[in-house]
Amino acid sequence: xxxDGLGEPFASGREADVYALGDGVVLRRYRNGGDATGEAxxxxxxxxxxxxxxxxxxxxxxxxxxxxxxxxxxxxxYLDGKLSLDASAHIIADLLRRLHELPGRGGTGxxxxxxxxxxxxxxxxxxxxxxxxxxxxxxxxxxxxALTALILAQVAIGSIEHEIGADAGTVLDLLLPLVPGDPLxxxxxxxxxxxxxxxxxxxxxxALPTAAARVRGTPMTA
Length: 222
Ligand SMILES: Nc1ncnc2c1ncn2[C@@H]1O[C@H](COP(=O)(O)OP(=O)(O)O)[C@@H](O)[C@H]1O
Ligand SMILES: [Mg+2]
Known about the structure:
globular; binds magnesium ion; 9 strands; 8 helices; 5-stranded antiparallel sheet; two-stranded antiparallel sheet; binds adenosine-5'-diphosphate
């Protein structure tokens, strides 16, 4: 119970609860405080280039009101037999490429998402759309790509529990030849960054070198 009239969230991730407000609007609220102002600005900036992101209506501290998207996550669509691993890899590569074409707002680098994985992609009637922009900002595109690869590898080796399991490794293998830039260039920095994320358990942190090795060991030619 939330005690504030919102009822039960219709979806929850590791960091936020999402409530339906009706009229095609959802409220996403960080459970542990946090400020959504920055991510709302990045979302609006990306949207101004036509990037597929939900429209933001209101932001107030940990609360973000945005357009409700209709459709399953990429992970759910795959588990439901509605999307192949190959199609998944192409969609991820395309979202990374299009995102990294957006110039950074500070004059260097590009926009980066820093949490681009199959649970943060919704397959809608308007095509695949990217959600969960809490880590997004200006940055190094290769860093962003390496982080996506590392997350897939964490699932592939069983460090992060997910129904997709080892199939995440197949997506990783299919993805690496498709991505723009160099997905390995910033992998060491990404491991350090990932180790410092509060969502990572000590066990997950301990397994990061194995996950990084899984990224490096992936055949680079399909
Ligand atoms: N704009 C939206 N429209 C519809 N569903 C959404 C939207 N944003 C988030 N969700 C749902 O809420 C879940 C959690 O949201 P997300 O932003 O990924 O939070 P977390 O940081 O907790 O992972 C998503 O997997 C999705 O099912
Ligand atoms: Mg999420």
